[in-house]
Amino acid sequence: MGIGLGVITGTALKLLAPRLASGAINAPRALPATASPLQALPQGLPLGRFEPHLELTGLSQAWARLAAVHRDLKATGFVLVLDDGRFAQLRSTDPMPAASSIKTPVLLAAMEDLDHGLLRWNEPLTLTKEVVGGGAGWMGGSPLGTRFPVYEAAAEMIRVSDNTATNLLIKRLGGKAKVDARFRSLGLPATKVNNWLPDLGGTNTSSSRDLARTIALVETGERLSPRARDLFREVLGRTVTRTLIPAGVLRGVTGSSTYPPDGELRAKGITVLNKTGDIGIAYADGALIELPSGQRAVAAFMVKGPFNDPRSTELIRSMAAEMSRVLIKEPAAATKAAEAKPALSRDPGSRPPAGAAAGTRP
Asked: For the chain, how big is the Rg over CA atoms in Å?
């Protein structure tokens, strides 16, 4: 029986071969090498784009009024809802002292090199005298020659704003000039590294729009793969200083002065991932804000003024509060109930809570 079936099948294939070759019979075709069966699946939630096209003029004007109260302060701001292009701005392209907020673009450049195989996540970075930075962080106090893996330098650069960790990464990325060239290629024209950190003179610059665009390039999938994007978000989510945009967003939604604000923000369906900057004469904060609607916004604020003037940080919180009132619509009853709730801790306008290293500037 086996021999008979084999003869029959072979004969049939021999007779059909010319017709298959001529296309008279439609045979199943193999997928091309570039095709993927996943392409036919639904795309899911859109990633959005960095494309401002509908200005929230009321919010832009509210920021201008807040800034006009303090004529000796220079303030800038920018926010963009990635999902629908709504935005507001206040001198958003003006170069400002970046302070530690420049560490977010540095993190993006490092993640790009990791994505392209030019950098290993566990690659050791050697501490040298050139890169030791004072101020925030602990790595600079280690003996020269100490080796730190890239993942630790990146994490501490954001978590406690370690200046030495930042310098280690800048050096590994090719130095200040090459990093500046990378920033230009990313479409960040105002972002420049002129000095090693801490740069207390404010010579390193960025703009509110640049800081917001940096985070948007990651969130929209424009520059990083999903795995590198996840690492970027994980690192950015470790920031310990939550006194600027996160505190301002919470104030705008609930009127609360609770610090840290994260518990109440989560209860409202809000997540804020941010990185601040503070050199006394200038303050900055750039953030990704996940809204209760499921939309995402990128925002940044920068203020320059007299040394250690509390009005600078308060202005950033006030601008963030105005922003959240516009982007996050809360029922009136819920808002009133939250405002009546007693504050659980000190006002977020004060310095970061105990536990931060003395004499450091995040």
From this structure: 26
First to last CA, the chain: 83
Q: Among 290, 192, 190, 285, which Cα is nearest to 233's?
A: 290
> What is the rounded CA–CA span in Å between residue 263 and residue 242?
12
Peptide bond into 37 cis (omega under 30): no
- Can you give the residue ranges of every domain in the chain? 47-340
Q: Half-sphere exposure (CA, 13 Å, Cβ side) for 207?
A: 17
Tokens describing residue 150? 């890239």
Residue 168, pLDDT > 80, answer yes
Asked if pLDDT for residue 233 goes beyond 60, the answer is yes
* Angle of helix 103-115 versus helix 176-185 axis, rounded to 10: 80
- Residue 239 has which token pair? 């920031």
Three-state SS annotation for the chain: CHHHHHHHHHHHHHHHHHHHHHCCCCCCCCCCCCCCHHHHCCCCCCCCCCCCCEECHHHHHHHHHHHHCCCCCEEEEEEEECCCCEEEEECCCCCEECHHHHHHHHHHHHHHHHHCCCCCCCCEEECCHHHCCCCCCCHHHCCCCCEEEHHHHHHHHHHCCCHHHHHHHHHHCCCHHHHHHHHHHCCCCCCECCCCCCCCCCCCEECHHHHHHHHHHHHCCCCCCHHHHHHHHHHHCCCCCCCCHHHHHHHHHHCCCCCCCHHHHHHCCCEEEEEEEECCCEEEEEEEEECCCCCEEEEEEEEECCCCCHHHHHHHHHHHHHHHHHHCCCCHHHHHHHHHCCCCCCCCCCCCCECECCCCCC
**What does pTM read for this prediction?**
0.80
With beta carbons less than 8 A apart as the criterion, state whether 327 and 292 touch.
Answer: no
Domain 47-340: top CATH class = alpha beta
Of the candidates 41, 50, 132, the one whose C-alpha atom is nearest the C-alpha of residue 87 is 50
Confidence of residue 11 (pLDDT cuts 50, 70, 90): confident
Mean pLDDT of 56-67: 98
